[in-house]
Amino acid sequence: MSTFLLTWIFMSAALCVTLILMPQQTNAARAFFVFGDSLVDSGNNNYLVTTARADSPPYGIDYPTGRPTGRFSNGLNLPDIISEQIGSEPTLPILSPELTGEKLLIGANFASAGIGILNDTGVQFLNILRIGRQFELFQEYQERVSEIIGSDKTQQLVNGALVLMTLGGNDFVNNYFFPISSRRRQSSLGEFSQLLISEYKKILTRLYELGARRVMVTGTGPLGCVPAELASSGSVNGECAPEAQQAAAIFNPLLVQMLQGLNREIGSDVFIGANAFNTNADFINNPQRFGFVTSKVACCGQGAYNGQGVCTPLSTLCPDRNAYAFWDPFHPTEKATRLIVQQIMTGSVEYMNPMNLSTIMALDSRI
């Protein structure tokens, strides 16, 4: 056998060993899927005929491009920062024409501003992706991915993915407390909360059936403390609106109980509760501790607390977004969102139950 042939065989064998031992780039970061409302919508509503939009300035003023993207933020939103923390690229909106080929393997964002747990939540926003439609798109997504990597690997990708679900706030703000709501006439706050939890359980069960095995579920924040509620309740000294606060106080413990029950039924910690009330309350109650000037007045808006109407090019705009906990009447600034993600990543059971995201990532890396 010639020296050339021996050398070629040796080099080929060495290359094969190197490729086997080399970490595969496609498996380096797990897929990430996002479902829910405007707190996590990264631009799906840009492609819909709806009034729930964030596609005009000054939205996106602090985004890397300096332009609006459909995120209800001055910059990055919750999914963006979670992706950043887990070492993944940001997920693209499921309706984006850019979401093709290998980008599909990163995951997808199915969220749509204005939706809730109930189908009649957000009817005033016209055409939005209600949660049932988000799940239909998730099924279509899996079919598209199967065409690229096959059905078995698609199932592995979905089963191994991290999932974020954010629902509930709109069911109170844009349904039960909405001025012309029939829900409020039909049931008490407690009864309505029980209905939401019952329907939410069905939603999460369906998500499990579609393959999700690690799902972070956020509760509602301090609903009565957002600038919109301060303005609408006529708060004089910035006191949080009591009825909206009561809604969160009823809903969130019921959500925790439901998630724990679901995990017992499944026999695994599939659903992780993220206590959005506590993560937000920290900087709302003590803004100066976190470097904010105010947690009452929105950076962008008009009227009392900048909490009336919506953020538009004609709105009052603060010069320093890092000084404000709230960007617009309902949504936190990027700086505040980073504080929330910090607790999602490393927070105690007071914030993440039964474990935080760092623990999840460490556990799942061993599987």
SSE order and pairing:
Blueprint: H1 3-21, E1 32-36, H2 78-85, E2 107-109, H3 131-149, H4 151-159, E3 162-166, H5 169-176, H6 183-186, H7 189-209, E4 215-218, H8 227-232, H9 242-266, E5 271-274, H10 276-285, E6 300-301, E7 316-317, H11 334-346, E8 352-353, H12 357-365
Parallel strand pairs: 1-2, 1-3, 3-4, 4-5
Antiparallel strand pairs: 5-8, 6-7
Helix pairs in contact: 2-11, 3-4, 7-9, 10-11
Main attributes of the structure:
single chain; about 375 residues; alpha/beta; 6-stranded mixed β-sheet; two-stranded antiparallel ribbon; 12 helices; 8 strands; about 40% helix; globular; disordered N terminus
Descriptive report:
This protein is of the alpha/beta class and 367 residues long. It is built from twelve helices and eight strands. Strands 2-1-3-4-5-8 form a six-stranded mixed beta sheet. β1 (32-36), α2 and β2 form a beta-alpha-beta unit. α7 (189-209) runs parallel beside α9 (242-266) and α10 (276-285) crosses α11 (334-346). The longest helix has 25 residues, at 242-266. The model is unreliable at 1-28 (pLDDT under 50). Residues 1-28 form the signal peptide.
Report the average pLDDT across residues: 92
Main beta sheet: 6 strands, mixed
The helix/strand order is: HEHEHHEHHHEHHEHEEHEH
**Radius of gyration from CA coordinates:** 22 Å
Helix content: 40-55%
Order of neighbouring strands in the sheet with most strands: 2-1-3-4-5-8
User: If helices are DSSP runs of H or I spanning 4 or more residues, what is the number of helices?
Assistant: 12
The low-pLDDT segments are 1-28
Percent strand equals 5-15%
- Briefly note the structural class of the backbone: alpha/beta
Shape: globular
Distance between the termini: 45 Å
Number of strands: 8
Signal peptide: 1-28
Protein name: GDSL lipase/esterase
InterPro entries: GDSL, GDSL_Est/Lipase, SGNH_plant_lipase-like
Pfam families: Lipase_GDSL
